[in-house]
Write a structure and sequence with these properties.
Elements (H helix, E strand, L loop, with lengths): L3 E6 L2 E4 L3 E3 H4 E5 L2 H8 L2 E4 L10 E7 H11 L4 E4 L4 E7 L6 H29 L2 H12 L2 H5 L2 H18 L1 E2 L2 E2 L6 H30 L1
Parallel strand pairs: 1-7, 2-8
Antiparallel strand pairs: 1-4, 3-5, 6-8, 9-10
């Protein structure tokens, strides 16, 4: 009697070792716990070494059929069901430790670069739309000469701009304002999915050309 095995894979999995087991890239469930444990420890692929010629990452596209074939070698009668992706990517990344000084230097550089760039963008925008002239017109309309002397509108504008940026990016001083992902995290997730889809499509096209040849 064949045993049913359920396997679920994500589209992108990171590993830090060359010998990739099924349990490293997928969730496995089976009523027979011994069989489940055995399947988790089946070798799926042995990746090429990284770190040579300064290459710190190895990316490989695999198919669920690769998992089925690996399981079938040990359990020919197993009924393998896919609950995840049909094709997925395994990233073998060589862990590289940075000194705290270097990390701090990189953070300081990125922070300074972002601050200067943002400041320039805001100043250029305000100059394009003549923000100062608009404030002067508002002061004239309401006859608020005293408010103009203390630059009340400018202060409110600056505070509102800062609050708007903080609320929009849902992040301030290392603290997340809510449990929702930030806009940058959403865009990065979209970008990573697009990259994964492109790599998978390229692999499929390459395999089809190979079969035709």
């Amino acid at each position: 009697m064949s045993e049913t095995v359920y396997i679920k894979t994500d589209k992108n999995i990171e590993v830090s070792k060359r010998m990739v087991l099924i349990g490293d890239v997928a969730d496995v469930y089976c009523n027979d716990k011994k069989m489940e444990n055995d399947i988790k420890h089946i070798c799926l692929i042995i990746l090429e070494e990284v770190g040579v010629n300064k290459i710190k990452k190895k990316r490989v596209c695999l198919s669920f059929m690769d998992i089925v074939k690996a399981v079938a070698k040990k359990y020919p009668d197993a009924d393998v069901n896919n609950l995840g992706e049909n094709d997925f990517i395994v990233d073998y990344i060589l862990e590289k430790k940075h000194s705290k000084f270097l990390q701090g230097l990189l953070i300081a550089f990125v922070a300074a670069f972002t601050f200067v760039g943002s400041m320039y963008a805001i100043m250029a925008y305000n100059n394009d739309v003549s923000t100062i002239e608009i404030f002067e017109k508002v002061y004239e309309i309401f006859g608020a000469d005293n408010a103009q002397q203390v630059k009340l509108l400018e202060i409110m504008y600056a505070v509102g701009l800062a609050l708007g940026i903080i609320i929009f990016y849902n992040h301030f001083a290392g603290v997340r304002l809510s449990g929702e992902p930030t806009p940058i995290e959403v865009e990065m997730d979209k970008y990573e999915k697009d990259v994964d889809d492109t790599l998978i499509d390229r692999k499929s096209k390459t395999e089809q050309k190979g079969k035709k040849a």
